[in-house]
Amino acid sequence: MSFRVFAVFNFKDEVEPSLQLIGAAERAVFRRPKIMQPTQDILAEEVPVALVYNGISHVVMMATPKDLEAFAIGFSLSEGIIEHPREIFGMDVVPACNGMEVRIELSSRRFMGLKERRRALAGRTGCGVCGVEQLNDIGKPIQPLPFSQTFDLAYLDHALRHLNDVQPVGRETGCTHAAAWVMPSGELVGGHEDVGRHVALDKLLGHRAQEGSRWQLGAALVSSRASYEMVQKSAMCGVEILFAVSAATTLAVEVAERCNLTLVGFCKPGRATIYTHPQRLIGE
Protein backbone atom coordinates (compact mmCIF):
# COMPACT_ATOMS: atom_id res chain seq x y z
CA MET A 1 0.00 0.00 0.00
CA SER A 2 1.53 3.31 -1.06
CA PHE A 3 0.51 6.74 0.18
CA ARG A 4 1.42 10.05 -1.40
CA VAL A 5 0.59 13.47 -0.03
CA PHE A 6 0.76 16.17 -2.68
CA ALA A 7 -0.23 19.14 -0.54
CA VAL A 8 -1.24 20.16 2.95
CA PHE A 9 -2.85 23.32 4.22
CA ASN A 10 -0.78 25.55 6.47
CA PHE A 11 -0.42 29.11 7.63
CA LYS A 12 -0.03 32.01 5.30
CA ASP A 13 3.56 32.99 4.59
CA GLU A 14 3.36 36.04 6.81
CA VAL A 15 2.88 34.00 9.99
CA GLU A 16 5.90 33.73 12.22
CA PRO A 17 7.62 30.32 11.82
CA SER A 18 7.28 29.66 15.56
CA LEU A 19 3.49 29.70 15.17
CA GLN A 20 3.19 27.45 12.15
CA LEU A 21 0.76 24.57 12.57
CA ILE A 22 -0.67 22.21 10.01
CA GLY A 23 -4.44 22.57 10.15
CA ALA A 24 -4.52 26.18 11.36
CA ALA A 25 -4.40 29.64 9.81
CA GLU A 26 -4.00 33.22 10.98
CA ARG A 27 -6.81 35.72 10.39
CA ALA A 28 -7.63 39.29 11.34
CA VAL A 29 -10.35 39.58 14.01
CA PHE A 30 -11.90 42.34 16.11
CA ARG A 31 -12.30 42.10 19.89
CA ARG A 32 -14.15 44.02 22.52
CA PRO A 33 -13.67 46.66 23.70
CA LYS A 34 -11.57 47.84 20.73
CA ILE A 35 -13.95 46.53 18.09
CA MET A 36 -12.60 48.79 15.34
CA GLN A 37 -8.98 47.75 15.86
CA PRO A 38 -7.97 44.54 14.03
CA THR A 39 -5.74 41.99 15.68
CA GLN A 40 -4.40 38.63 14.57
CA ASP A 41 -5.89 35.35 15.77
CA ILE A 42 -5.33 31.67 14.98
CA LEU A 43 -8.24 29.62 13.64
CA ALA A 44 -8.60 25.91 12.96
CA GLU A 45 -9.00 25.09 9.29
CA GLU A 46 -12.15 23.37 8.04
CA VAL A 47 -12.23 22.26 4.42
CA PRO A 48 -14.25 19.80 2.33
CA VAL A 49 -12.47 16.45 2.05
CA ALA A 50 -13.74 14.07 -0.62
CA LEU A 51 -13.07 10.34 -0.32
CA VAL A 52 -12.83 8.92 -3.83
CA TYR A 53 -12.76 5.14 -4.22
CA ASN A 54 -11.45 3.77 -7.52
CA GLY A 55 -12.35 7.01 -9.25
CA ILE A 56 -15.86 7.35 -7.76
CA SER A 57 -16.54 10.04 -5.15
CA HIS A 58 -18.26 8.38 -2.20
CA VAL A 59 -18.57 11.08 0.46
CA VAL A 60 -17.47 14.63 1.25
CA MET A 61 -16.73 15.44 4.87
CA MET A 62 -15.80 18.74 6.48
CA ALA A 63 -12.49 18.18 8.23
CA THR A 64 -9.21 19.66 9.39
CA PRO A 65 -6.70 18.97 6.59
CA LYS A 66 -4.14 16.92 8.51
CA ASP A 67 -3.65 13.15 8.95
CA LEU A 68 -5.98 12.52 6.02
CA GLU A 69 -4.47 9.13 5.19
CA ALA A 70 -5.33 7.88 8.68
CA PHE A 71 -8.79 9.41 8.31
CA ALA A 72 -9.43 7.61 5.02
CA ILE A 73 -8.35 4.26 6.46
CA GLY A 74 -10.37 4.75 9.65
CA PHE A 75 -13.49 5.85 7.78
CA SER A 76 -13.20 2.90 5.41
CA LEU A 77 -12.94 0.50 8.35
CA SER A 78 -15.57 2.07 10.60
CA GLU A 79 -18.09 2.28 7.75
CA GLY A 80 -17.53 -1.36 6.77
CA ILE A 81 -16.07 -0.53 3.34
CA ILE A 82 -12.98 -2.61 4.14
CA GLU A 83 -12.08 -5.08 6.87
CA HIS A 84 -8.30 -4.55 6.85
CA PRO A 85 -5.95 -1.79 5.65
CA ARG A 86 -4.31 -4.23 3.22
CA GLU A 87 -7.50 -4.03 1.13
CA ILE A 88 -6.40 -0.52 0.21
CA PHE A 89 -3.81 -0.87 -2.55
CA GLY A 90 -2.83 2.79 -2.79
CA MET A 91 -3.79 6.31 -1.74
CA ASP A 92 -3.10 9.84 -2.99
CA VAL A 93 -3.99 13.05 -1.15
CA VAL A 94 -4.35 15.99 -3.53
CA PRO A 95 -5.82 19.52 -3.43
CA ALA A 96 -9.14 19.88 -5.27
CA CYS A 97 -12.06 22.34 -5.44
CA ASN A 98 -11.09 24.52 -2.47
CA GLY A 99 -10.51 21.43 -0.39
CA MET A 100 -8.78 18.08 -0.48
CA GLU A 101 -9.39 14.83 -2.30
CA VAL A 102 -8.24 11.46 -1.00
CA ARG A 103 -8.01 9.04 -3.91
CA ILE A 104 -8.20 5.47 -2.64
CA GLU A 105 -7.55 2.34 -4.67
CA LEU A 106 -9.62 -0.54 -3.28
CA SER A 107 -9.37 -4.23 -3.97
CA SER A 108 -11.84 -5.30 -6.66
CA ARG A 109 -13.92 -7.31 -4.17
CA ARG A 110 -14.32 -4.39 -1.79
CA PHE A 111 -15.06 -1.97 -4.60
CA MET A 112 -17.84 -4.23 -5.89
CA GLY A 113 -19.34 -4.25 -2.39
CA LEU A 114 -19.16 -0.47 -2.22
CA LYS A 115 -20.93 -0.13 -5.57
CA GLU A 116 -23.73 -2.36 -4.29
CA ARG A 117 -24.13 -0.10 -1.27
CA ARG A 118 -24.25 2.97 -3.49
CA ARG A 119 -26.98 1.42 -5.62
CA ALA A 120 -29.01 0.73 -2.49
CA LEU A 121 -28.81 4.42 -1.57
CA ALA A 122 -29.65 5.75 -5.04
CA GLY A 123 -32.83 7.81 -5.33
CA ARG A 124 -33.46 8.26 -1.62
CA THR A 125 -33.78 11.72 -0.11
CA GLY A 126 -30.99 12.78 2.21
CA CYS A 127 -31.21 12.89 5.98
CA GLY A 128 -29.13 12.05 9.01
CA VAL A 129 -30.03 8.37 8.68
CA CYS A 130 -30.17 8.16 4.89
CA GLY A 131 -30.13 4.77 3.27
CA VAL A 132 -32.34 2.95 5.75
CA GLU A 133 -35.87 1.73 5.15
CA GLN A 134 -37.07 2.17 8.73
CA LEU A 135 -35.77 3.28 12.11
CA ASN A 136 -35.12 -0.31 13.14
CA ASP A 137 -32.50 -0.49 10.39
CA ILE A 138 -30.34 2.27 11.88
CA GLY A 139 -26.91 0.98 12.74
CA LYS A 140 -24.68 -1.59 11.14
CA PRO A 141 -24.61 -5.27 12.06
CA ILE A 142 -21.70 -5.57 14.46
CA GLN A 143 -20.13 -8.76 15.74
CA PRO A 144 -20.31 -8.69 19.57
CA LEU A 145 -16.94 -7.72 20.99
CA PRO A 146 -14.93 -10.24 23.04
CA PHE A 147 -14.03 -9.65 26.67
CA SER A 148 -10.28 -9.99 26.17
CA GLN A 149 -8.87 -7.39 28.55
CA THR A 150 -9.25 -5.32 31.68
CA PHE A 151 -8.24 -1.71 32.22
CA ASP A 152 -7.11 -0.12 35.47
CA LEU A 153 -8.95 3.18 35.94
CA ALA A 154 -5.99 4.55 37.88
CA TYR A 155 -4.16 4.85 34.56
CA LEU A 156 -7.04 6.75 32.97
CA ASP A 157 -6.24 9.77 35.13
CA HIS A 158 -2.75 10.02 33.66
CA ALA A 159 -4.17 9.90 30.12
CA LEU A 160 -6.75 12.58 30.86
CA ARG A 161 -4.10 14.95 32.17
CA HIS A 162 -2.16 14.61 28.93
CA LEU A 163 -5.05 14.66 26.43
CA ASN A 164 -4.42 18.32 25.69
CA ASP A 165 -0.88 17.42 24.61
CA VAL A 166 -2.20 15.79 21.42
CA GLN A 167 -4.13 18.94 20.41
CA PRO A 168 -1.60 21.51 19.15
CA VAL A 169 -4.24 23.17 16.96
CA GLY A 170 -6.82 22.94 19.72
CA ARG A 171 -4.53 24.62 22.22
CA GLU A 172 -4.11 27.60 19.90
CA THR A 173 -7.70 27.82 18.65
CA GLY A 174 -10.01 26.13 21.16
CA CYS A 175 -11.74 24.60 18.17
CA THR A 176 -10.82 20.92 17.79
CA HIS A 177 -11.83 17.57 19.22
CA ALA A 178 -9.20 15.02 20.16
CA ALA A 179 -9.06 11.24 19.96
CA ALA A 180 -6.16 9.19 21.30
CA TRP A 181 -5.32 5.60 22.15
CA VAL A 182 -4.71 4.85 25.83
CA MET A 183 -2.28 2.00 26.37
CA PRO A 184 -2.86 -0.29 29.39
CA SER A 185 -0.07 1.66 31.13
CA GLY A 186 -1.98 4.93 30.70
CA GLU A 187 0.38 6.20 28.01
CA LEU A 188 -1.34 8.22 25.28
CA VAL A 189 -0.35 7.28 21.74
CA GLY A 190 -1.66 8.09 18.30
CA GLY A 191 -3.33 11.35 19.24
CA HIS A 192 -5.35 13.05 16.50
CA GLU A 193 -7.49 16.17 16.34
CA ASP A 194 -10.12 17.60 14.05
CA VAL A 195 -12.94 20.13 14.02
CA GLY A 196 -15.25 17.12 13.68
CA ARG A 197 -15.38 14.63 16.54
CA HIS A 198 -16.25 11.73 14.20
CA VAL A 199 -13.35 12.61 11.93
CA ALA A 200 -10.93 12.78 14.86
CA LEU A 201 -12.05 9.30 15.90
CA ASP A 202 -11.73 7.95 12.36
CA LYS A 203 -8.17 9.31 12.23
CA LEU A 204 -7.36 7.44 15.43
CA LEU A 205 -8.99 4.22 14.22
CA GLY A 206 -7.06 4.39 10.97
CA HIS A 207 -3.78 4.95 12.81
CA ARG A 208 -4.52 2.09 15.20
CA ALA A 209 -5.26 -0.29 12.34
CA GLN A 210 -1.87 0.49 10.82
CA GLU A 211 -0.14 -0.28 14.13
CA GLY A 212 -1.64 -3.78 14.22
CA SER A 213 -1.22 -5.90 17.34
CA ARG A 214 0.90 -3.26 19.12
CA TRP A 215 -2.23 -1.27 19.88
CA GLN A 216 -4.61 -4.19 20.33
CA LEU A 217 -4.99 -3.70 24.08
CA GLY A 218 -6.09 -0.41 25.57
CA ALA A 219 -8.93 2.02 25.00
CA ALA A 220 -10.03 4.92 22.85
CA LEU A 221 -10.31 8.31 24.56
CA VAL A 222 -12.25 11.18 22.98
CA SER A 223 -12.59 14.77 24.19
CA SER A 224 -16.22 14.98 23.07
CA ARG A 225 -19.53 13.40 23.93
CA ALA A 226 -20.21 9.81 22.88
CA SER A 227 -22.91 9.54 20.23
CA TYR A 228 -24.17 6.25 18.84
CA GLU A 229 -22.00 6.80 15.76
CA MET A 230 -18.89 7.07 17.92
CA VAL A 231 -19.79 3.81 19.64
CA GLN A 232 -20.62 2.12 16.35
CA LYS A 233 -17.38 3.22 14.70
CA SER A 234 -15.36 2.00 17.68
CA ALA A 235 -17.09 -1.37 17.77
CA MET A 236 -16.70 -1.84 14.01
CA CYS A 237 -12.94 -1.50 14.53
CA GLY A 238 -12.76 -3.89 17.47
CA VAL A 239 -12.36 -1.27 20.21
CA GLU A 240 -13.60 -2.79 23.47
CA ILE A 241 -13.46 0.33 25.68
CA LEU A 242 -14.44 3.91 24.82
CA PHE A 243 -13.76 6.76 27.25
CA ALA A 244 -15.46 10.11 26.59
CA VAL A 245 -14.81 13.38 28.41
CA SER A 246 -18.46 14.38 28.03
CA ALA A 247 -21.76 12.50 28.21
CA ALA A 248 -23.22 9.63 26.23
CA THR A 249 -26.58 9.58 24.48
CA THR A 250 -29.29 7.00 25.12
CA LEU A 251 -28.79 5.40 21.71
CA ALA A 252 -25.03 5.25 22.27
CA VAL A 253 -25.64 3.33 25.49
CA GLU A 254 -28.06 0.94 23.77
CA VAL A 255 -25.61 0.22 20.95
CA ALA A 256 -22.72 -0.23 23.40
CA GLU A 257 -24.76 -2.66 25.48
CA ARG A 258 -25.71 -4.66 22.40
CA CYS A 259 -22.19 -4.98 21.01
CA ASN A 260 -20.42 -5.60 24.36
CA LEU A 261 -18.52 -2.29 24.36
CA THR A 262 -17.56 -0.73 27.68
CA LEU A 263 -18.75 2.87 27.44
CA VAL A 264 -17.58 5.44 29.98
CA GLY A 265 -18.51 9.12 30.03
CA PHE A 266 -17.85 12.26 32.10
CA CYS A 267 -14.23 11.18 32.42
CA LYS A 268 -12.27 13.47 34.73
CA PRO A 269 -9.35 12.63 37.04
CA GLY A 270 -10.88 10.58 39.83
CA ARG A 271 -14.35 10.56 38.24
CA ALA A 272 -16.22 8.63 35.55
CA THR A 273 -19.70 7.39 34.72
CA ILE A 274 -19.72 3.78 33.48
CA TYR A 275 -22.73 3.12 31.27
CA THR A 276 -22.14 -0.43 30.06
CA HIS A 277 -20.08 -3.56 30.75
CA PRO A 278 -18.10 -2.44 33.82
CA GLN A 279 -16.49 -5.90 34.12
CA ARG A 280 -13.59 -4.75 31.93
CA LEU A 281 -12.63 -2.06 34.45
CA ILE A 282 -10.66 -2.49 37.65
CA GLY A 283 -9.46 -0.08 40.32
CA GLU A 284 -11.22 3.02 41.55
Automatic annotation (TrEMBL):
Instruction: Give the main location.
Output: cytoplasm
The protein's matches in InterPro entries, at most eight in alphabetical order, are given as: Cytidine_deaminase-like, FdhD
Keywords of the record, alphabetical order, are: Cytoplasm, Molybdenum cofactor biosynthesis, Transferase
Q: Where in the cell is it found?
A: Cytoplasm
What Gene Ontology terms describe what this protein does at the molecular function level?
sulfur carrier activity; sulfurtransferase activity
Q: Which GO terms describe its cellular component?
A: cytoplasm
Q: Could you tell me the Gene Ontology terms of the biological process aspect for this record?
A: Mo-molybdopterin cofactor biosynthetic process
- Catalytic residues (positions): 127
Identify the residues that bind Mo-bis(molybdopterin guanine dinucleotide): 266-271
Name the domain of life.
Bacteria
Q: What does this protein do?
A: Required for formate dehydrogenase (FDH) activity. Acts as a sulfur carrier protein that transfers sulfur from IscS to the molybdenum cofactor prior to its insertion into FDH.
Q: Which family does it belong to?
A: Belongs to the FdhD family.
What name does the UniProt record give this protein? Sulfur carrier protein FdhD
To which species is this protein native? Answer: Kluyvera ascorbata
